[in-house]
Design the sequence.
């Protein structure tokens, strides 16, 4: 009954999204589900269209340089997803004859593919009876069954997967049922502070939370994680051609593998002047106390668990005859092709907007 109500509702209420083609393309499903992890649909749509235009199939993605992939991922954040998607495409070409596997166990072998993504691809692209549970689905199930549980607790998650598996097994079209569950949670069964649109819900007659007037209390509010601070000073070093010195971040950690202006980071407070001067000297530049005290830009970038504070300062390039090994100079036209986080892109853009030492917005 539940799956039939979901399927009937989805046929008339589903949003028109570019990856919802008929028939479903498994590669497109892999790209879309990877992008949709922790990112809003409205941000994913233009990025997905650009990505598929450039990499229309798994072979084109697997053969592309990782920097090209990062360039098209710009603005989505969580760049480890891009690296994993690129690695997954390579594995699919190598181990699965360039065909996205249909079995959940095979999908789980792909880098970056967890239980939810594997279930989504197996059910939506191949109509396999595989369950899915994300935040939206869990909220729908908790309200439907009137379960006043801690949403992130392991017993709650285990219970959600069991119920989702029962729904998928009973469904005529498991992929449609699963996608309808996700759609319902994203558009109707909304989380606080929004109010769920219960009057439009196809499951309201079966929903215990609705019957008991508990939709505002279920699920319980999540406990907020502590937010730490990171202090970043990004350095503008410009050559005689007006190009900027950039560096690539380490392959692990925050913004892994992306490019940025030379940036000194500190977890405690702003780096001291002498430490910053040494950092810049190694890169062939000098920094005056005046420039240190007068950043061209200051801004704050918020991530899920961190408040990142930026200062962008202008340094002078010292006469230097030897090549700076491992570093690259870029013109403004090069920026589009590079993988850059939105925060560091803001710093680089500010550097290119400097004219005669002045910053103009």
Sequence:
């Amino acid at each position: 009954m539940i799956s039939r109500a979901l399927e009937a509702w989805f046929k008339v209420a589903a949003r028109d999204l570019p990856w919802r083609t008929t028939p479903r393309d498994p590669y497109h499903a892999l790209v879309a589900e990877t992008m949709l992890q922790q990112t809003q649909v409205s941000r994913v749509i233009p990025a997905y269209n650009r990505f598929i235009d450039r990499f229309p199939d798994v072979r084109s993605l697997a053969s592309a340089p990782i920097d090209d992939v990062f360039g098209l991922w710009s603005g989505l954040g969580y760049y480890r997803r891009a690296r994993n998607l690129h690695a997954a495409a390579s594995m699919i070409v190598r181990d699965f004859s360039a065909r996205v596997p249909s079995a959940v166990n095979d999908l789980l072998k792909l880098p970056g593919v967890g239980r939810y993504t594997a279930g989504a691809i197996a059910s939506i692209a191949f109509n396999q009876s595989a369950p899915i549970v994300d935040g939206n689905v869990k909220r729908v199930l908790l309200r439907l069954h009137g379960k006043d549980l801690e949403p992130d607790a392991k017993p709650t998650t285990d219970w959600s997967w069991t119920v989702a598996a029962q729904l998928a097994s009973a469904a005529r079209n498991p992929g449609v049922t699963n996608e309808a569950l996700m759609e319902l949670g994203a558009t109707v069964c909304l989380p606080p502070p929004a109010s769920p649109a219960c009057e439009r819900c196809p499951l309201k007659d079966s929903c215990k939370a609705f019957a008991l007037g508990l939709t505002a209390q279920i699920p319980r509010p999540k406990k907020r994680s502590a937010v730490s601070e990171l202090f970043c000073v990004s350095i503008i070093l410009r050559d005689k051609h007006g190009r900027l010195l950039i560096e690539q971040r380490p392959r692990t950690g925050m913004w892994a593998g992306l490019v940025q202006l030379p940036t000194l980071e500190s977890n405690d407070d702003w780096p001291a002047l002498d430490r910053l001067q040494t950092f810049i000297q190694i890169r062939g530049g000098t920094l005056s106390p005046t420039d240190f005290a007068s950043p061209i830009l200051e801004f704050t970038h918020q991530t899920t668990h961190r408040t990142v504070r930026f200062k962008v300062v202008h340094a002078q390039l010292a006469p230097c005859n030897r090549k700076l090994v491992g570093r690259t100079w870029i013109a403004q036209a090069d920026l589009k092709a590079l993988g850059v986080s939105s925060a560091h892109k803001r710093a680089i853009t500010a550097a290119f907007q400097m004219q005669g030492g002045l910053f103009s917005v």
